[in-house]
TrEMBL record:
Residues 27-262 form the AB hydrolase-1 domain. InterPro entries: AB_hydrolase, AB_hydrolase_1, AB_hydrolase_fold, Epox_hydrolase-like. It comes from Microbacterium proteolyticum. This is Pimeloyl-ACP methyl ester carboxylesterase. SUPFAM superfamilies: alpha/beta-Hydrolases (SSF53474). Belongs to the AB hydrolase superfamily. Bacterial non-heme haloperoxidase / perhydrolase family.
Length: 278
């Protein structure tokens, strides 16, 4: 493990916590969802490393073991933080795997930094192309009432909110699709998040429009999504992302909730590793 300094001005350098398996394999960077940390990839790191890859995870600013500054909770800065990880570790020919809000980093990274160091990308249960339901985005799955309810819930009782959020995160039709231990672990990670960072990041993933970013995905792309995802519904997100990226591959996991990388870890790992090997 190590700390990587992301430079965003004379007085705003922050340290990001990074875990790197090392080795000579082609690098795979796993970008976690909200409000978790790099530890949420525990079911993926050993499998991908065993398949011969160098696996890098990091905690987004404001979450997990990374610094928790008061600013920088927007996708331009998030993608610049990702670039700091890639450049500091001198990763080349890398695959970026973005889960949930992490899919936004993938899309915005290619717009801001290009694909010179990137081999391929994976959008997993990801928020693009645009979550907010608006007049010019009627297919957006997140309406104002739901977004406001999430914000107020987090503000009023953070611990209760995270307990319910992680339950919904891993549930299908009200039934938990993972062990209680897996759900509790996600809740533990959520409780490491800075309150201000969680609110500002929620606003970012709820309101950022990635529709103009997706045409910049010119490397091979895989979209993987559960068909029973109630947090980031497939029809309004993964399906549209697949349609927006020319030549992208799509894998829909039957009966999977939002946290498909845990509930269906074997299938998720197999599909991602198969994609990596092509």
């Amino acid at each position: 493990m190590s700390e990587i300094t992301a430079h965003h001005g004379l007085l705003t350098d922050i340290d990001l916590h990074v875990d790197d398996t090392g080795g000579t394999g082609r690098p795979v960077v796993l970008i976690h969802g909200w409000p978790l940390s790099g530890e949420s990839w525990a079911h993926q790191v050993p499998a991908i490393e065993a398949a011969g890859y160098r696996v890098v995870t990091y905690d987004r600013r404001g979450f997990g073991r990374s610094d928790k500054p008061r600013s920088g909770y927007d996708y331009d800065t998030f993608s610049d933080d990702l670039q700091a990880v890639i450049e500091t570790l001198d990763l080349r020919d890398a695959t970026l795997v973005g889960f949930s809000m992490g899919g936004g980093e993938v899309a915005r990274y290619l717009t801001r930094h290009g694909a010179d160091r990137i081999h391929s990308v994976v959008f997993a249960s990801a928020v693009p192309p645009y979550l907010a339901k608006t007049d010019d985005n009627p297919e957006g799955p997140l309406d104002d009432e739901t977004a406001d309810g999430m914000k107020q819930g987090l503000k009023s009782d953070e611990k209760a909110f995270y307990h319910q959020f992680t339950t919904d995160f891993f549930s299908v039709d009200g039934t938990l699709a993972v062990s209680e231990a897996d759900r509790a672990e996600a809740e533990r990670l959520a409780n490491q998040a800075d309150h201000h960072a969680a609110l500002k990041s929620m606003e970012a993933f709820a309101t950022t429009d990635f529709r103009d970013d997706l045409p910049n995905v010119t490397v091979p792309a895989l979209v993987i999504h559960g068909d029973s995802d109630a947090t980031v519904p497939f029809e309004g997100s993964g399906k549209r992302t697949h349609e927006a990226i020319a030549g992208s591959e799509l894998h829909v996991v039957t009966g999977a909730p939002h946290g498909v990388n845990v509930s269906h870890a074997d299938e998720f790992n197999r599909v991602v590793i198969d994609f990596l090997q092509r």
